Every structure is written in C-alpha cells, then in structure tokens.
Amino acid sequence: MIRISPSLLSADFSRLAEEVRAAEEAGAAMLHVDVMDGHFVPNITIGPVVVEALKKVAKVPLDVHLMISDPDRYIPDFIKAGADILTVHLEATAHLHRSVQSIRERGVRAGVSINPATPVRLLEDIIQDTDMVLLMSVNPGFGGQDFIPYSLTKLRQLKKLISDRGLKTEIEVDGGVKPENAREVADAGADILVMGSAFFKSGDYRATMEKIRRAFGDA
Ligand code: DX5
Ligand code: ZN
Fold first, then answer.
1. What is the pLDDT of residues 1-27, one digit of tens each?
2. Nearest residue to 8 (alpha-carbon basis) of 132, 165, 16
3. What distances in angstroms separate CA 140 from CA 15, 38, 42, 58, one per listed residue?
4. Ligand 1, pocket-test mutation among 133, 192, 194, most atoms within 8 A of CB
5. Is 0.85 surpassed by the pTM of this model?
6. Integer Cα distance of 165 and 173 in angstroms
C-alpha cells in the first residue's frame, strides 16, 4: 500500500500539535516538514526549533525536506531536532556525496531531491548511497501548485534506474499530489506521496485517506 506523508506546510500552524494528531489518526505514515530559507526557494518557513517541538508530539517519523542553500551547515541541527529522514536538494550543495554521508553517519535516513528541471540521470552516481529520492513534481517553494505532468516520465526513469541497480532506494513524490492523481503517480513508481493542500485543506482528513484507498481499490 502506498504511504502518505502529509505536508505540514498546509496545516494550521497555530494548532500544529492537533494537526499532527489528526493526520496520524487519519493514517499518515510519516509527516513531511518543509524547511525553506528564502534563498534556495522564494519562501521562508520553519527551522530546527519547530522540528524539535514536532518531535515531542509526533508518533510517526518526521520526513524533513530541506529547501535551503548550503544544507551541510544545518544537517547536524535538524538531526538533533529529531528528523528521521533528512532530504537535501542536489541543486543546493556543491558536494552532494558529503551531504549524504553526513546524514547517514549520524544514523538518519538520507534523501536526495531533484527539481523539475533537473534530469534523473544526474542521480546515477549518488543513488546507491541514498535511502530515498524525493522527486519534485512542482517547483519548490509553495504548496497548492499544479502537478507537472512530465514528472511521470521522470518517475518511470527513476524507478528503472533503481530496479536496474537492484537498490532499495524509495521514491517520494512531492507537489500537486491529490486523491485524483495518487493512483497514476503510484503506478509510475512512487512509494511515498507527499500531500499538502489536498490533505490539510480538505477539511476531513480521514475521508481524504479513504478516497486514496478507494483509488487503489483498497477500501
Ligand atoms: C513545495 C513543498 C511541498 C508542498 C506540497 O515546495 O516541498 O512539500 O508542501 O504541497 P502541495 O501538496 O499542496 O503541492
Ligand atoms: Zn516538500
């Protein structure tokens, strides 16, 4: 069964603990935390202090997506704060291998993310060192954008790269995912779907999860 990682970016920040609980009760497999620095992406969100607070209330793993320049500087802080999966962008670091090693040597699962314009082939020499690839299906920075259809082609390429190499790397897809396209995205190769606005703006989190399960013929 596909796993859903609701993106807290679209949650009510004044009631984060309740939002975490409600997402977990609805069946969230993990919680996606979008960290933006106003430099790598044109938006500023949260830092390690908030991750630390989330860690106190979350029962499921924290899936932390760093959309920041020079992520190496902050990897130790986010791990200390409680990230269970920590993802850096290929485009944001000059020494991606070092970034990934620095996450893994601290005992945390390492993810690498690529933007919509970054080719999958650039992952060829790092993929064997990653636990997850986060494929962006919108340009990072904001919730509520439309899924870029070409992402499905990239997803198939990525899935093939992983299976050709016999790797266990998981694929997470982020941006514009909703109950209506969840099945298509999963069929193209995704293991984990990030869902921000389609989840938190739906009003009824359980019903949203049920819609997804139904799309998979699973309810
Ligand atoms: C976008 C973020 C996403 C965002 C997804 O830069 O990385 O995680 O929250 O939001 P939706 O699901 O609304 O596209
Ligand atoms: Zn994200």
1. 899 999 999 999 999 999 999 999 999
2. 16
3. 24, 11, 9, 24
4. 194
5. yes
6. 20
